[in-house]
């Protein structure tokens, strides 16, 4: 019987509040961040620090494979502007397009440079 590889899941934000989702998955010394959201109760001008995920702000960590943005709500992508541009970002193509177009009209929009797009299977 083949032994299962351990996976560690760390919920940085969103477990005791609605919104501000950030979950870090780690397996075999590689990590992936699911969402990097802004808490819903944070004011638009309030500074919210990034969760303590190694390499997220500074980039250059080869064990951090990237950030996956699940969908285009600020409580799932709202802290992306603080993430190093060296960190790969993955999001659905339509969500990326909507966020980019929204950036023209609203401070909550975001012009991402995705490393790749999520697809439905």
Task: Jot down its keywords.
121 residues, alpha/beta, Metallo-beta-lactamase, Chain A, 6-stranded mixed β-sheet, globular
Your description of this structure?
- The structure is a single chain.
- With 121 residues, this protein is of the alpha/beta class.
- It is built from 2 helices and 6 strands, in the order ββββαβαβ.
- It has helices at residues 74-77, 93-105, and strands at residues 7-13, 22-27, 30-34, 64-68, 89-92, 116-118.
- The termini are far apart.
Write the layout of secondary structure elements.
Blueprint: E1 7-13, E2 22-27, E3 30-34, E4 64-68, H1 74-77, E5 89-92, H2 93-105, E6 116-118
Parallel strand pairs: 3-4, 4-5, 5-6
Antiparallel strand pairs: 1-2, 2-3
Order of helices and strands: EEEEHEHE
- Number of DSSP helical runs: 2
CATH superfamily: Ribonuclease Z/Hydroxyacylglutathione hydrolase-like
- Rg from Cα: 15 Å
Strand percentage, roughly?
A: 15-25%
Give the number of DSSP strands: 6
Number of domains: 1
Q: Which segments are poorly predicted (pLDDT under 50) over 5 or more consecutive residues?
A: none
Query: In this structure, how is the largest beta sheet organized?
Result: 6 strands, mixed
In the CATH classification, which architecture applies?
4-Layer Sandwich
* Strand adjacency order, main sheet: 1-2-3-4-5-6
Distance between the termini: 30 Å
Secondary-structure content class: alpha/beta
- Calculate the mean pLDDT score and round it: 91
Quaternary status: single chain
Shape: globular
């Amino acid at each position: 019987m083949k032994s299962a590889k351990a996976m560690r899941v760390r919920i940085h934000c969103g477990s005791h509040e609605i919104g501000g989702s950030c979950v870090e998955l780690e397996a075999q010394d590689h990590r992936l961040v699911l969402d990097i959201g802004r808490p819903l109760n944070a004011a638009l001008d309030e500074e919210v620090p990034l969760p303590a995920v190694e390499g997220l702000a500074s980039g250059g960590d080869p064990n951090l494979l990237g950030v996956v943005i699940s969908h285009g709500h600020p409580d799932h992508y709202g802290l992306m502007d603080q993430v190093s541009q060296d960190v790969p970002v993955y999001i659905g193509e339509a969500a990326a397009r909507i966020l980019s177009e929204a950036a023209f009209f609203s401070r909550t929009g975001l012009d991402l440079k995705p490393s790749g797009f999520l697809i439905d299977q």
